[in-house]
User: Fold this.
Amino acid sequence: MAENSGTDPAVNTNTEENASTSGTIIMVTVKTPKDKEEIAISEDSSVAQFKEEISKRFKAKQDQLVLIFAGKILKDGDTLNQHGIKDGLTVHLVIKTAQNSQASVSTTPGTPPVNRSGSGTGTGTANPSPASPGGTAQGTGPTPAPAQPANLLSGFGDLSNLAGMGMGSSNFMELQQQMQRQLMSNPEMLSQIMENPLVQNMMSNPDLMRQMIVANPQMQSLMERNPEISHMLNNPELMRQTMELARNPAMMQEMMRNQDRALSNLESIPGGYNALRRMYTDIQEPMFSAAREQFGNNPFSALGGNGENSGVQPSRTENREPLPNPWGPPTPGSTENRPPGTTTSSSTSGTTPSVSNPLGIDASSLGNGMFNSPGMQSLMQQISENPQLMQNMLSAPYMRSMMQSLAQNPDVASQVLMNNPLFAGNPQLQEQLRHQLPVFLQQMQNPEALGVMTNPRAMQALMQIQQGLQTLQTECPGLMPSLVPGGLPGGLPGGLPGGIPAGMPGGIPGGIPGVIPGGIPGVPGPAASSVPPENPPPPSGQGSTPTSSAGASPSQQQLMQQMLQMFAGGSAGGIAGSPQTPEVRFQGQLDQLTAMGFINREANLQALIATGGDINAAIERLLGSQPS
Amino acid sequence: MDQENTSFSVKLYIYDISKGMARQLSSAMLGKQLDGIWHTAVVIHGEEFFYGGEGISSCPPGGTILGHPDSVVDLGETEVTDDLFMNYLTSLGESTYSAESYKLFEHNCNTFSNEVAQFLTGRKIPSYITDLPSEVLSTPFGQLLRPLLDSVAITPPGSNSINGRYGQR
Assistant:
């Protein structure tokens, strides 16, 4: 066999030889990182023979071939049988090349992980400058001097590694990365480095700084995405200022404070908040994400496009509660920081199940009692506390595109809807959903509806309306059903309730986390559309809008009723935070009336309920109804 | 040939990058239960190797921002030496596992881990990991989010690239 292996023309004879020496020819797949080939070889042959075949096929020398199978390196002396290589199995091949030594980073696995162990690459804005000097060859000298952490320096102290630094860019980068990592873990080191005169010298040279920053691949990709950043970098004045800042933490703080103050001023300008948020989203967030990528990234935070928002965050409960009340005194910085944060989490949570929110129909789903879940109620609370949540959610760019695509493709929307487990148990719901979906989607596209949703004052008004409805619901349960039939297409005795059912399927923006919370915007939504038309005109016109498709059928009545129950239930838990008993609610007024001399508590209560807590009107009622 | 026949143990580090959120929220959002969003890396020769948006990267075991793995699977032993392995990885990085070829659903960290595991030990990684993309894509929700997700690359920071092409853009 050995004699045959050398001769080329003997290929045929070779295989024949092999065939004759043993039994079956098997097909073995030989896989390299780049390639894959099937090789026919005799079952009994040795590894050496196998390699010969392979060397012909892959045009490589036999010495360069390394075969691996099941974790074992196949030595020439072994046989295929020995390793259990059978027909149809795959053997891995590595072709050793001259580049091998260069590619591998460290000399032996045993070397302390200076070169190999990496850290995040270039950080965000402020930090690349201090880190990069450490990376440059010059920097290696001075950097060990001021900072004394032993682990970092041990690598630098080892000259052989320094020599290796010149080879391939990979080494260089690793050093730099490791520097950065050390920096991150040890803040004092940063200040030490900054104090080093050489570093300071370098920092005062804007060109050099710029070069270093630009060289960082993270920055490069960032710059590609955001040309504004490169403009910023090209402005030497700005660079110098930034470097001053980086050098001087106190000054940095001052700057930040000024910036925050300016931002909060901006916020109070009408439309200012939007501009701010846009600015943040377009510029800051990508930078932050780039920075964040180094230090802590929930990979799913890139969901929602452009690495903006943290995804899949639990959309309900405690996480949101500490959000500041935007209507309170604006605290510099905090308000600015939170809303973007809200944008982050709420936008995403808005994205996800927004589809499953055929809000108009949410009314019925609400009635299913989901609405009274604690999660929902806390959400109501959060929404009421922070109307900007809505605003943020709705204005997210992908929200819009998603809604658009939904509008264009109702099938997708309905499909997603149907699959949502919350609706799964109720085919009737699904039917209704399907019918009203196109209409509802159209409504969602209506910028006015969106505008109402994003207007915090409108939201507040909505809450008030909810409260009113709740009152109505509890006090006059008989009234509501009678309102319902008229509510839909035709006119209604009360303008408000008519407006509400009409507006319900429409004007309900999608972006609410989860199906359950989905009902919430449904709540303010309808009221929102009724707010503009306001009180006066009987709703005959209004009522005829989108829901005209639905008749005042009993199922619709049920729908309405359920929705109204939801109103009552939801607002009870969330908005007002007050218990439902009118007596407790009007406690203050009752006391006042009693003090005035109206001793009949029952009557007082009735009057108060009838007038919705208005004392003067209640007094008139009482006076009017009193026999004497 | 002085062959020492040393063998190195090969482990698979499995991380849940949703940190438990997938377990809680997946059934509500996707309609099916996913126990986690898995990111995997192969640990051999005292180092962790994985594939992400930057290409093939390495770091000390457990050294990415994800911290310690949620579970570790022992893939077995291999005779592949450090040098050989680096050679192999470099080739991989130049061919099928470059930074640009990263695709969240079809060609991701788990694809890489699977391939490396087979190279080193002949064994595949547990199927629940490699089945994840198809699980997600089989839900309508996953389909909806697909365009968004396709632009995502999972690159846990705290590593350096093996086929670093810095400055050669």
Remarks:
- Chain A touches chain B through 72 residues (CB under 8 Å).
- The longest helix of chain A spans residues 272-295.
- The CA atoms of residues 508 and 521 of chain A lie 6 Å apart.
